[in-house]
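Possible regression after last week's pipeline update?

I re-ran a chain I had predicted before the update to compare outputs. Posting the input and the new output here so someone can diff against the archived version. Not blocking, just want to make sure nothing changed silently.
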Amino acid sequence: MYLEIITPEKKVYSGNVEAIKLPGAEGSFGILNNHAPIIATLKKGIVKITDSKQQIENFDIKGGVVEVANNNVIILAEA
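New output (post-update):
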C-alpha cells in the first residue's frame, strides 16, 4: 500500500509500506494491505512504519487524521 505523511511544513514520508501502527484517539491500531476504508483521528504518539524491505521507521506526531482508501493511506499530522 502507498503511504504519505504530510505535516503543515512538508511531506515527511511517501512510499510503499507493508504495515503501519498508529496512535488512534481511541487506542492504537494497525493498517495492513487491503484494509477497509477508514478515517480516524490520531493523538500524540509514534507512527511505526514497516516498509517493503522490512525496515522499521518511527515518526513522532502531536496528533492528526488518517484516511485509508484503496490501499492509499494519507496521514495529516502535526509534528
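Follow-up from reviewer: compared with the archived run. The chain has a mean pLDDT of 96. Marking as no regression found.
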